[in-house]
Amino acid sequence: MTRDEQYVQALGNMERTVHHLASRIDPPEWRLHSRSVYGFRYAEKGAIQAIVQKMARVVSGLRAAHILLTQGYAQEHAALCRMVDESSEDITFLSLGMIHGETDLHKRFLEDFYLEEFEDASRPAQTRIKRPNTPRDRIHAYLTSNPSAGPDPSSSKAMLQAIHKTFSGFVHGASPHIMETYGGPRSALRFHMTGMLGTRLWQGYADSYWSYLYRGMSSFRMVAKAIGDEPRFRTIRDYLKEFEQTAPQ
To answer: Looking at the whole model, is its pTM more than 0.85?
Structure first.
């Protein structure tokens, strides 16, 4: 099996997990929101409904990132991977809350997550709702200090924050990150805006994509544990063990 075939298989497994979990809860309803707009919304705004949505975002984001990677768009690929990683953290964070008990931080996160963008979508400029995002460092603190965490929370938190900050530059367009697209033969130095397929930079991101898939699947395993689905937990656990054997060297 080629690496790309392995990725397709992994993403297919993840998608089936999302559909399986979504089928275990009441489906979204077509309803009025923001006073003038209809759309699908979950009637119950709990952790499991948020997890399903985040899981769908992870699978879609990983597929999109893979497409960008195959076309050489390393920077755009990295920005999507940063978004995927954040959603994977959110899934683990919410799952641990279900396992160990919901904290005030979990409650605040869910309140922020379910906020609509406007009170009245027909008057967006006048009724925009300010979304108070839960600080990422507080989520990192919980992930590294909850009852299931390892023995060295400080080092784990520092690692999470380092990954988060490094890839934020791709999302927000920081100069050091943009300048990675500049180069070429000395006689033709330029910005590369049609992808960087086959370059050293591209290869580095191609290798790191494996880790984003792995972390996404690991968060799905945590969901299975949170909802008490032991057969699916074991299936994901066993697949992860096989996946670990293919890590880029």
So the answer is: yes
